[in-house]
Design goal:
about 70 residues; mainly alpha
Amino acid sequence: DNHQYENGLYLKERDAAIMIEEKDLTKELLLEKIKLLTESRTERERLQENIKKLDAKDSAKKISVFLINAK
C-alpha cells in the first residue's frame, strides 16, 4: 500500500504541497526546499491558498450520511 505517496502526489498535483520522493531525498534537496519555504513568503502563501481550495466543507456530515446510506 502506497497511500502516503498517493496522498502527497494528490497535493503536489494541485500545487498545494512540495513533495520529495524517498528515492530522491538528499540533505541538499531537503535544505533547498526548507530554504525556499522559510525565505519565500510568496511560496508559502501560494501553497496555503491552494490547500485551502481542497478543504472539504461539512466533511463529517458527508461521511456520516454516506455511511448511513451504505447499508
